[in-house]
């Protein structure tokens, strides 16, 4: 009986180690091939369109309402101390240092990351990945490398957009609705944000681009390998769910780790 | 000294979990010939084929390419062999997000530095040969089963391979389309002289195409020879297979 438990724990542990090893090799192989010849310009542009351009609307919406709610909550918290003039500082630093990169990464995971996992998962299940192997085309280079390059370019730009729209949202709720002086709000934004805050936010967004793209592509690529033994449509659905959940969790963990080094 | 066979399986074994699919396969494939592997569904014919392109690796035994083990070939030699080999999948494995033209052109676009004009010429020539002109911009999902097979065949032929592996190329086709595919393979094999390995269930139609037939049963090659020899074989399992009887019931 005890041997069975030990065996089961051992099996889960070895599977976990094997999975981490595969993930690392997948990442190294995909990133390593960024520097190989015949740059995949058209594919990279396609993915920038899909990951970046097509996410603009959802980033605008979430950025605006995040900023507005920060303005609202911030105002009612600060007003109790008589420091509502610091609203610009609170909104801008919260967005640029934390919420901008994190929420952008989570929104892109939901919109583009899930699609990456599902698309590559379907390619795996319908033998399209195998077809690439038989044609002497490196499947990791074909499905992962252009996506990671596109993500590394798109994530910081979308984060910047999120931050800008969020600060504007804070202005809408703080100044236009609740009556904080507009000049004070903008003055606080301009004078409290340092270049180091912006670089820190961009650094996070680049790390998140690697995390999200690697996990989502990896999950899709290995959708036929899972502990539950699910194949076909079930395998793809499990891969997509795992990709989104794991990406979000690891983004939050990475955010904490990076912040603890940056502050 | 005799020349070694082009491709040779020697006591090749493969297990999936507890299920031993290949239990020691011995089979020789001659260069420039059409070899057909027949056998009941689920006996490991596709598994056998996938070993040649490296999609599956054997547990034991050897797969020899011109006398040299494939897994011990130098990287360059293995790459050269695989580059000259095409694989036509049972379900075609066409890229559903690419058009017909892009699907056929893909192996050339990704693995060579062919100029656009030459690429167009080559792809269109193959499309014309297979009677699928004027569908360049259609997606695989917009095509009939027969058309998809022909697109897959065009993709397999576009690199001028020396070896083509066909995994049940006629599954799901009506008898007329089946005959067309067989004729197509036969004509192209004659014209280009490639080595073909075909996994098929189409008995007796496939006899017209096959120069060498191997019957895979219970994980081993039970019979090797010509179509004529197969028909007159005295092995009970072979006769049962030809007559469509379940040999397991006869003990």
Structural features, described:
The complex is a heterodimer of chains A (263) and B (251). Chain A has 263 residues and is mostly helical. Chain A has 10 helices and no strands. The longest helix of chain A has 39 residues, at 87-125. The longest helix of chain B is centred in the C-terminal third of the chain and has 18 residues, at 175-192. The model of chain B has no long low-confidence stretch (mean pLDDT 87). Chain B has helices at 45-52, 75-83, 100-111, 116-129, 145-157, 175-192, 227-231, 236-242; strands spanning 7-16, 19-29, 34-38, 60-65, 68-69, 85-88, 163-167, 195-199, 212-217, 220-225. In chain B, helix 3 crosses helix 4 and helix 3 (100-111) packs parallel to helix 5 (145-157). The chains are: A mainly alpha (263), B alpha/beta (251). At the A-B interface, helix 4 and helix 5 of A face helix 2, strand 6 and helix 3 of B.
- Outline type of chain B: globular
Q: Note the run of SSEs of chain A as H and E.
A: HHHHHHHHHH
Write down how many β-strands of chain B occur, each being a DSSP E stretch of 2 or more residues: 10
The biggest beta sheet of chain B reads: 6 strands, mixed
Q: Give the number of DSSP strands of chain A.
A: 0
* Largest beta-sheet details of chain A: none
What's the CATH class of the largest domain in chain B, please?
A: Alpha Beta
Helix-strand makeup class of chain A: mainly alpha
User: Could you tell me the mean pLDDT of chain B?
Assistant: 87
Portion in strands of chain B:
15-25%
The CATH level-2 architecture of the largest domain in chain B is identified as 3-Layer(aba) Sandwich
